[in-house]
Amino acid sequence: MTAAAATPPNASLDLAAVNDQLQNADSLEVIRWAHQTFGAGLILTSSFGAESALMLHLTIQVVPKIPVVVVDTGYLFPETYKFIEALRERFDLNLQVYQSPLSPARMEAIHGRLWEVGTAEALNTYDRIRKVEPMQRALKELNVTAWLAGLRRNQTAHRAGLRVVEKQNGVYKVHPILNWTTKDIYEYFKKHDLPYHPLYEQGYKSIGDWHSTRPITADMDARDGRFLGLKQECGLHLPSSQEEESSRKSSDL
Hints:
By secondary structure, the protein is an alpha/beta fold. It has helices at 15-22, 27-38, 53-62, 78-91, 104-111, 120-141, 157-160, 182-192, 240-247, and strands spanning 42-45, 67-71, 94-98, 146-148, 165-168, 171-174.
């Protein structure tokens, strides 16, 4: 694969041409292309969920000190916080932690325990406060022009339609493992002795906040354990029009 020339921050890429160029590239080639194209404007986001060690391991082979942005909702499992620290030490990560300016206690006092309402609308309000706002602030403060995300086509209906490179809300999104299967991931983890999230073996195949994540059974999809089964996306990976549609009734901070 021939690397693209460095792209100025305000330049626009020909996404059709770029995706044609990268259609047969492996994950490391995609990450190299992104690093060569976006330079210091490139970040990696990680949920430190079930299989997050994969993207971390791939990316630091190419960009060892890339900013790794994690949105801490204040409601992660204790095991997740410990997992973050373990991977930070193992991979010497340049971790950038972002949180809502509204503390969990204050949010609950103002809005209530939104995950107990039992509606997608309430969860959208929660996600807007605890996830989307901190991520938007990270993109601005870190002068991000592109981010690497470990999305896969087989995860949700929205992700099934993604290309390797997209543009979302003015920032490029690069998906190096978009076409990976569960088998691909298993084999990579085994080859490189990578750790799954500590809750993975307890049936938690997709892991978010403790109050809205459940273990699944063999006949369920991995994402069925998230968001109390009311939705599939938290808003971080949706275009603004879809995000606004899903959270249009959310309250301002």
